[in-house]
Amino acid sequence: MPHEYTCHVRFSDVDVYGHVNNVKYFEYYQEARIDFLRSMRTDDEPHLATVVARIDVDYRRPILFRPEPYVVRTWVTRVGTSSYSLASDISDDHTVLSRAQAVLVAFDMSSQRSRPLRDLERQVLEGALEPA
Predict the structure, then answer these.
(1) Residues 31, 41 contacting (CB under 8 angstroms)
(2) Structural domain boundaries of the chain?
(3) For 10-87, where are the alpha helices, taking DSSP H only?
(4) For residue 132, what pLDDT is reported?
(5) Residue 23: what pLDDT?
(6) Rounded CA gap, 4 and 33, in Å?
(7) Which residues does 37 contact at the CB level (< 8 Å), separation at least 6?
(8) How many alpha carbons lie under 13 Å from residue 113 in its C-beta half-sphere?
């Protein structure tokens, strides 16, 4: 089941037409991705040390300024040796307004290089894989 994050549009996020600026979509997906990764923490694995290698966003319909939040759903689509992929979408009730695909890479802070996923990281990510 996808992770759900509620996202409020801020007045400063919109243009003169009331549409969310295209750059803000990346922020919404980032907020949801961070919330998703926090939800996957365990006592043995406090966080997944990763960096974003790629993110693609498809804009389908404008996101408009309104007081009610939008829902950002995030799920794992692939787990590799040192990277994994997430899919996300932003919706308004049953209408998908935007979709995103992100590739994240496990990162070693001391060497500043990619590293293989640890066994526990792999187990947690594979447990969140959505069926195709």
Answers:
(1) no
(2) 3-127
(3) 22-39
(4) 64
(5) 95
(6) 10
(7) 47, 48, 50
(8) 3
